[in-house]
């Protein structure tokens, strides 16, 4: 089994941002020379998510509103006694999961018609890191 | 590392259906000849999920009701301005995740006593695709 | 591809408990001799979860309260007609997902600064099993 590892860095302007990283994942796959296997795309922070969904701006706003409804920003999380104010970002991370595995077949991301990979920043305005690991032959 | 890839197609009669695909995953594993590794089972659409849970009909109704409560069908998602009416299905997909990895040990799915793989259709009555990818030795 | 498999057993005193298993995962990796690849950590029961998040006690209480809010214990789940009373634990499992994949680079878990692996028991006071499978070279 071969492995190829690449890191992406983010420092978003807004607290919450949703960034399409499909092209960066394709580049990592191309660099790897791997034809059969998979790509792990995983946030390295506990206040960010990774998901596969549609690149449609109305939907992304719907998702943001829905996440804020189910895991709202609040002053009084116990976690804030540590001096942080990002309790909601930890819960949003748990809700959407922080990683995906993309199958690789014939040297391509084996995606359905609308699948795109997103990095979901829930506590931005600071440097955050993500790992892309291609594994296979 | 060896890889064996298989696709399943669905076209459900109802908008939401939950289909036990454990047997199809076992067949793919058997065809692969792989004894140690894993199976990736992943929806190729952004309005369907894959989960591992119990094959118990009351529970499946509970899950359906719970999903409809947390990610309800509504008329006024922004996504619907594109002409779609499936905004809720995108949110349900994010909530339950669209993929699982099943460990393979000694040529078998290495499952606990009640684990079964389900395809969860949230926007059916159209052709949808799923990938099963067995990887290992 | 090499594979190394290890099982952990739990029998928690309380119904819900959150157990940091990062050290056990590191031990399994060390035993495997694998330097490049990944570790699958997956609950083998459908009433428990596995997540990666912060080892901060206030946050863990926040998560527990949040899960109880979104997937509450209730008497009247249909699943309870089978004689069980753990319908909420099945829903909590679906909400947080039951598995994570940890990348392995240079013989180490390739984690960001705050990432820790937790076993989340939602229906304890009985014997439960988890699989750690290290795969790579």
Strand-helix topology:
Three copies of one chain form a homotrimer.
Chain A: E1 2-10, E2 17-20, H1 22-32, E3 37-43, E4 48-53, H2 57-70, H3 87-96, E5 99-105, E6 108-109, E7 116-121, E8 128-136
Antiparallel strand pairs in A: 1-8, 2-7, 3-5, 3-8, 4-7, 5-6
Helix segment tally of chain A: 3
Largest interface: A-B, 32 and 31 residues
The biggest beta sheet of chain A is recorded as:
5 strands, antiparallel
* Quaternary organisation of the protein chains: homotrimer
Helix content of chain A: 25-40%
Structure description:
The structure is a homotrimer of 137-residue chains. Chain A is of the alpha+beta class. Chain A has 3 helices and 8 strands; from the N terminus they run E-E-H-E-E-H-H-E-E-E-E. In chain A, a hairpin with a 2-residue loop joins strand 5 (99-105) and strand 6. The longest helix of chain A is centred in the middle third of the chain and has 14 residues, at 57-70. Chain A is elongated and about 50 Å long. The termini of chain A are close together. The mean pLDDT of chain A is 97. At the A-B interface, strand 4, helix 2 and strand 5 of A face strand 3, helix 3 and strand 8 of B.
